[in-house]
Amino acid sequence: MYQLPKSIDNLATRLAQLPGVGPKTASRLAFYLVTNMHIDTTGLAAAIADLRSSLTYCDECHNLTEDNPCVVCTDENRDRTKLCVVEEPMDVLALERAGFNGLYHVLGGQISPLEGIGPADLQIESLARRVSEHPEIAEVIVATNPDVEGEATASYLVKLLSMYDRSITRLARGLPMGGDLEYADELTLLRALEGRNQLVS
Fold first, then answer.
1. End-to-end CA distance of the chain, in Å?
2. Alpha-carbon distance 115 to 97, whole Å?
3. 3-class secondary structure for the chain?
4. N or C, where is the chain less crowded by C-beta within 10 Å?
5. What is the pLDDT of residues 96-110, one digit of tens each?
6. Residue 111 CA to its chain's centroid (Å)
7. Burial of 45 (0-12, 13-18, 19+ CB in 10 A)
8. Mutual orientation of helices 148-161 and 124-133 as an angle, nearest 10°?
9. pLDDT tens digit string along 124-158?
10. Is the model's pLDDT at 195 over the cut of 80?
C-alpha cells in the first residue's frame, strides 16, 4: 500500500494544525508546495521561523509588535483619550482599517469558563492598572466579539472599570451575533464605532 513520503506527510501534519485546515487541504497544500518550483519554499520556511524570533508583545497594549513599545503606543498623533479594548491582535487590524485613531488594549482572548479561561488568564489586571494610571483616558471602548463569551467578558470589564471616573462604551450592534471582529467589513465596523452605547459614565 502506497504511503506518502515522510517529508510530505510531516509537512501535511503540521499544516493541518492551522485553524481551518483539515487533513485533505493540508495534503493538497503540501503537494502544491512540492510540485510548484516557482514558490520559494526556503523563503517561506524562513519567514515562518522569523515569526518567533522577531515578534514580541507590547508591554503597554499587549499587541504583537517588532518594537517594544509598539508603533501605536508611541504615536503622538493618536487620540489618547480613547482606549479600545479588543480580544486579539487581528481585531486591532480590523479597527485600524475602519479608521479608529485611539489606543488599544489587547486582552489575549475572552473569558470562557468552559475552556478554563478566567480573568486572571487575560490582560485584564494590566487594563485596570492602565486606566487608573492614565487620567487622560476619558473613554474605554469595549470591543469584544458579539458572542456569549465576548458579552461575558464585556460585562466583567464594565463592573471592573466602573470604579474609575471614565466613560465606558460598547460597540453598537452593527456586528452580527456570533461573529468575529476580524471578519467584519470596514463599513460595519465604522457604523458600530459611531453607534457605540454608553454603559457607565
1. 69
2. 31
3. CCCCCHHHHHHHHHHCCCCCCCHHHHHHHHHHHHHCCCCCHHHHHHHHHHHHHHCEECCCCCCEECCCCCCCCCCCCCEEEEEEEECCHHHHHHHHHCCCCEEEEECCCCCEHHHCECHHHCCHHHHHHHHHHCCCCCEEEECCCCCHHHHHHHHHHHHHHCCCCCEEEECCCCCCCCCCHHHCCHHHHHHHHHCCEEEEC
4. N
5. 999 999 999 999 999
6. 14
7. exposed
8. 40
9. 999 999 999 999 999 999 999 988 899 999 999 99
10. no
* Residue that the C-alpha cell 479597527 belongs to: 95
Q: CA–CA separation, 154 vs 169, rounded Å? A: 10
- The answer to whether the CB of 131 falls within 8 A of the CB of 60 is no
Instruction: Give Cα separations from 38 to 27, 32, 35, 43, 45 (angstroms).
Output: 19, 11, 9, 12, 15
What's the rounded Cα separation, in Å, for the pair 64 and 70?
8
Counted residue by residue, the chain has a size of 201
Domains of the chain from N-terminus onward: 6-54 (1.10.8.420), 57-200 (3.40.1360.10)
* C-alpha cell of residue 56: 514580541
User: Residue 50 is placed in which grid cell?
Assistant: 522569523
